[in-house]
Amino acid sequence: MTYRMHLRALPESQLPRGYGPLAGFLDEAWDHYEEEAGAGIAWSIEKDFELLDRLCTSEPAAPGGADGPGALPVAGGIVIEDPRDVDPPILVLDPGEVREAARFLDEVPFDALWASGGKPVMAGFRGWDEARVRDEVVRPRHEGLRTFYARAAAQGHRVVKCSGSEPRMIPSPQFG
After folding, report:
1. What is the mean pLDDT of each run of 10 residues along the chain (176 residues)?
2. What order do you get walking across the sheet with 78-80 strand by strand?
3. Which of 26, 83, 112, 154 has the most CB atoms around it within 10 Å of its CB?
4. What is the rounded CA–CA span in Å between residue 45 and residue 7?
């Protein structure tokens, strides 16, 4: 099984309210992930999303660290908790936060983030070649995140995020 974070952009008018409806929406969205990713409204990050968050919040390249705009793309947003306290929370960014995340990812160069946060990221890849990790693992995930948020911001969308394991990585929608 693979652990992933799933990101889905959507207009405000389509945002389900409450954990159960959001989980159901994300479950359905995951069933159509390939076509939605092709349309630019969905994206996922395999297991390394925590490391990407660490990179995006590394100071001095990311002003404010974990409390700054670099925290928005991966771990930021309003936290919607599972009322059963079983499944992971769902995170929701409003359109202003999506624009702020997109601006951060566009304005702060990857190489600057790597210079300030590459060492802690490399701790998760002991024994790996740094250039390979930087250029073949982390840079493509950062670029995918940047592209996803740029599209979502241009459309004025919200972003909904959750993490979990495949095959049914999305929280169970069997509750209200």
Report:
1. 85 93 92 93 87 90 88 93 91 97 96 94 92 95 95 97 66 40
2. 42-46, 3-10, 158-165, 90-93, 78-80
3. 26
4. 8
